[in-house]
Amino acid sequence: MELHVVINGRKDLASQLYQQLRDAIESGRLAPGTQLPPSRLLAEQLGISRKTISDTYAVLTYENFLVGKIGSGTFVNARIPISRRKQSHTDFASAELIDYWHNLKSPLRHPTLEGMARYDFIGGATVKNQFPDEEWRRCTQHALRQISNSRGYYSQPEGLPALREAIARHISFARGVVCVDDDVVVCNGAQQALDVIARVLIRQGDTVAMEDPGYSPARLLFSAQGANVVGVPLDDEGIRVDLIPDGTRLIYVTPSHQFPMGMPMSNARRVALLNRAQQLGAIIIEDDYDSEFRYEGRPTDSLQSMDDRGNVAYVGTFSKTLLPELRLGYAVLPPAILEAVIIAKQLTDCHTSTLPQWALAKFIADGYLQKHIRRCLGIYAGRRERILARLNSDLAPWFDVVPSTAGFHMAVLCKVPVNIALLIELGKKVELGLYSLAPFFHDAESKPGLLLGFGAIETLDIDPALDRLKSLLNQLS
Fold first, then answer.
1. What is the pLDDT of residue 112?
2. How far apart are CA 474 and CA 477, in angstroms?
3. Which tens digit of pLDDT belongs to each residue from 406-450?
4. Residue ranges of the chain assigned to CATH 3.40.640.10
5. How does strand 283-287 pair with strand 248-253?
6. According to the model, what pLDDT value does residue 84 have?
7. Does domain 113-128+371-476 have CATH number 1.20.1560.10?
8. Which residues partner with 92 through β-bridges?
């Protein structure tokens, strides 16, 4: 690969070369540690003498911009400070819009590995050592063979047929979703599914109704697309359907494992929700993000399986069953919006990467996914039981558990006044990651409490973590 240097004319060549190399180093375009081409190769590339190149390298080395290593070559000095271009967004016509995006804060942004606490109750994450590396490696090798035999064209925006078929079979079996492979659109995680559905259905000022408290990234996404997002309160049966306002075009719910509180939506409430959507002419997005992990009670039908009018778009993800880093999700769409969503996805990203698609299709077809889910279910069940045992014994003076039967997080509400913000800050000092419920409330009055995820904390770490939590609560008391 050639170094990007532009020489104009035949005059002052050394000065031109010096200035361009120095500017590239100071701006960071040539990163610290980058090896420069040998003088002979750069001379051939630029059509100037080798002596001019060598002399310029020598000057920059003398000024500490470059460093020569005997037997290795010439490198950008790793100790050179990089000067960044100073520019304010207020200089642009879109300053107000840029300000809006600057001020958006997502409460579910995961920290880097270095930012994780020793004992972390973060939601929506799993322990990496549970991932079936060997099986996935075999499926990835299969994917590479499939790609090597392809013609090298862009793929379908709706996803590979093999994966769409595998997803349709899996969710029909595991969740009772009524679908065929042609109803499935493969996405880069559930978040992209929400994005492309919203692009098709809402315009500036349209009303979107969602549970309150609810999944904040969805609320932020709908708001960013110009929607008027209305938070609808919950009760023990789920979303208060009678409070969904007239004029609503889109309704977002998590009926199987309400996020963040955890309760399932009752059957009667589901029927009422479907009827209300039909009255409004609204589409319901059913986000079924982690209900494959069920611990007690009879399985509940998906909302989509109860829909005989084409009002429900079912959204799922493999971030919870496999790994968030894979960024693979899907939507099962009613016929009225299917083709429109496919076009919107094509305009957004053309298509999802085919390598993980081929691998996941093989992973599901060979039974590895079901085997992995069963294994994780046993692990999560043990963690859940241990946390519940502690919450119902020595932590009972402080917290009430919101009943839930699925997923790998639970919500706990404070029985007595607790400064949750201070508790979280104190937890950081003892390597304890705690997360408040407050960011998930929008219009409804916030209830003090914690969201306790148990996917990313090892089973043997639960008691030491909860011991630290109890100690902090005693300090605050």
1. 63
2. 5
3. 899 999 999 999 999 999 999 999 999 999 999 999 989 999 999
4. 131-366
5. parallel
6. 59
7. no
8. none
Residue 187 has φ and ψ, to the nearest 5°, of -130, 170
| Residue of 141, 150, 201 whose CA lies nearest to 331 | 201
Helices (H) and strands (E) in the chain, counts: 15, 15
**Helix (H), strand (E) at residue 426:** helix 420-429
Q: Tokens 């016509």 sit at which residue?
A: 93
Residue 197: pLDDT above 80?
A: yes
421 with 436: CB under 8 angstroms?
yes
Ranges in the chain annotated CATH 1.10.10.10: 13-76
Greater model confidence, 460 or 83: 460
Residue range(s) in the chain whose domain bears CATH number 3.90.1150.10: 113-128+371-476
Tell me, rounded to whole angstroms, the distance of Cα 373 from its chain centroid: 20
pLDDT at 115: 61
End-to-end CA distance of the chain: 64
pLDDT band at 300 (very low <50, low <70, confident <90, very high): confident
List beta partners, residue 446. Answer: none
Sign of CA dihedral 163, 166, 169, 170: negative
For 13-76, give the CATH class. mainly alpha
Mean pLDDT of the 77-84 span? 71
CATH of region 131-366? 3.40.640.10
Residue 105's pLDDT band (boundaries 50, 70, 90)? confident
pLDDT beyond 80 at 118: yes
Lookup: tokens for 436? 């408040």
> CA dist 67 to 26, 50, 148, 165, 334, Å?
15, 18, 42, 57, 62
User: 44, 39, 65, 71: which is closest to 54 by C-alpha?
Assistant: 39
For residue 260, is the peptide bond before it cis, meaning its omega torsion is within 30 degrees of 0? yes
Neighbouring residues of 275: CB distance < 8 A, sequence distance ≥ 6? none
Lowest mean pLDDT among 26-35, 156-165, 384-393: 26-35
Please tell me the predicted confidence (pLDDT) of residue 26.
86
Asked if 234 and 258 touch (Cβ cutoff 8 Å), the reply is yes
Task: Kindly state the tokens that stand for 395.
Answer: 């932590």
pLDDT band with cut points at 50, 70 and 90 for residue 78: confident
The overall average pLDDT reported for the chain is 92
Nearest CA to 326 among 190, 122, 469, 462? 190
Quick check: 3 and 36 in contact, CB under 8 A? Answer: yes
CB-based contact 214:440 (threshold 8 Å): yes
C-alpha–C-alpha distance, residues 274 and 310, integer Å: 10
Of 115, 87, 406, 128, the closest CA to residue 255 belongs to 406
Residue 297, pLDDT score = 74
In angstroms, the CA 263 to CA 256 distance is: 8
